[in-house]
TrEMBL record, chains A, B:
One of its GO terms (molecular function) is 4-alpha-hydroxytetrahydrobiopterin dehydratase activity. It comes from Roseicyclus mahoneyensis. Pfam families: Pterin_4a. It catalyses: (4aS,6R)-4a-hydroxy-L-erythro-5,6,7,8-tetrahydrobiopterin = (6R)-L-erythro-6,7-dihydrobiopterin + H2O. It is an enzyme of class 4 (lyase). It comes from the Bacteria. NCBIfam families: PRK00823.1-3. This is Putative pterin-4-alpha-carbinolamine dehydratase. InterPro entries: PCD_sf (IPR036428), Pterin_deHydtase (IPR001533). Keywords: Lyase. CDD domains: PCD_DCoH_subfamily_b. One of its GO terms (biological process) is tetrahydrobiopterin biosynthetic process. Belongs to the pterin-4-alpha-carbinolamine dehydratase family. Coiled coil: none annotated.
Length: 99, 99
């Protein structure tokens, strides 16, 4: 997938869709974040594993913090200094895998 | 494995061994932390997966933050309000799996 930083209307529409799914902009960084809460560690790490396979395939990786059943994710595209179409694609996969 | 909070000489000896392997005490919490750096995401997440299986088996889970090839781990035993033998055991497994 070709990466490009989101700007203008594309960015507005993408952010509107993401915030509708619980993502928020990170203060002080051009990045999005979401806290996923699962039933237990098995579910949380199982989800992380599914995401990891997709992330590796995309060659686009999350920043994420896990403790037991909770995973806090931050997405941005370091190479582009902000939110790109890759972040939107990965966020969408994360939401889908979380059911 | 029976969990017990480390105290006295047991604690001193355990912390000495851990700091010799790059673990440090967290400021303001009774917890230990270490930053593991791997070759790439594949190696980092592969290591996390091995640790996750052991953690689940021990029913003792890390706090960890991953971005690409780096994993920052914090270990403490919430139930006991501090560092326990479970943290020492999990730290030892982490070090061993990291080679």
């Amino acid at each position: 997938m070709d990466a490009h930083k989101l700007e203008g209307t594309d960015r507005d529409q993408a952010l509107e869709a993401l915030t509708g799914h619980g993502w928020t902009l990170v203060e002080g960084r051009d990045a999005i974040t979401k806290r996923f809460v699962f039933g237990d560690f098995n579910e949380a790490f199982g989800w992380m594993t599914r995401v990891a396979l997709v992330a590796e395939h995309m060659n686009h990786h999350p920043e994420w913090f896990n403790v037991y059943k909770t995973v806090e994710v931050t997405l941005t595209t370091h190479d582009m200094g902000g939110i790109s179409n890759l972040d939107v694609a990965l966020a969408s996969k994360m939401d889908r895998f979380a059911g």
